[in-house]
Amino acid sequence: MLQTEIRDNILLVKLNRPEKRNALNDATILSIENVFSNIPKGIGCAIIYGEGKHFSAGLDLSELTERDAIEGVHHSRMWHRVLDKIQFGSVPVIALLHGATVGGGLELASACHIRVAEESTFYALPEGQRGIFVGGGASVRVSKLIGMARITDMMLTGRVYKAEEGMMIGLSQYVVGEGEGLDKSIELAQKVASNTGMTNYALMHILPRISEANQDHGMLMESLTAAIAQNTPEAKERLKLFLEGKAKKVGE
User: Which residues partner with 96 through β-bridges?
Assistant: First the structure.
């Protein structure tokens, strides 16, 4: 279901069901939970990507069983629990996208912190045309990325966004040529992993709360976080090197 590889301090996590367009069944979702609950010590960033022609075509409907309402709630909440392990885990996660990034595949991608899309990437939420509703977090995470009006349109009409348009509306931060995504993702992961642990923790766990707080509470959280971050020994050393002209300047 999943294959993992460590390159220096980067963890590569590969969805490995190419014959199913990397559709996500329960076994794959639970494997994702296991991987992101047990990040090896020393890892500074993770990359998740798909084998074959697609990132993920979404929920594996061939394994969809008939459930009553409460069973359906529990199944949806299982997805929420697992994807929270990515969004609010121990290391930042980059999603490398190509081909279908659809339904549950888009929900998985939206739980990551950075999304790199190759030119073949396309996005859709086809649940509306299949008589169902998103259950893996899209109504929250994708709405925050692109806004309620756009996700409503996607679900009402089956609209498909291609890579460039997807980046313009917020579904990814980068678009690269076909076959260039892994190199770009590793380049970004190395930059992310070089940050201090406190900085990355704040961006993963505190910034999302600040963005949802009222202004007064958000500003207070910012002040507390800034004070804690600048008081760490690593931050003090980095600032010292900068003031001594020994650190790279922005743009170099």
Answer: 116
CA dihedral 206, 209, 213, 216 (to 10 degrees): -10
222 is catalytic: no
> 197-243 belongs to which homologous superfamily?
Lyase 2-enoyl-coa Hydratase, Chain  A, domain 2 (1.10.12.10)
Find the helix packing angle between 148-157 and 138-146, rounded to 10°.
120
List, for residues 96-105, the tens digit of each pLDDT value.
999 999 999 9
- Gap between the terminal Cα atoms of the chain: 41
- Structure tokens belonging to residue 226: 């800034």
Q: Which of 63, 66, 71, 107 is catalytic?
A: 107
pLDDT tens digits, one per residue of 106-119 = 999 999 999 999 99
119 counts as catalytic: no
pTM (2 d.p.) = 0.95
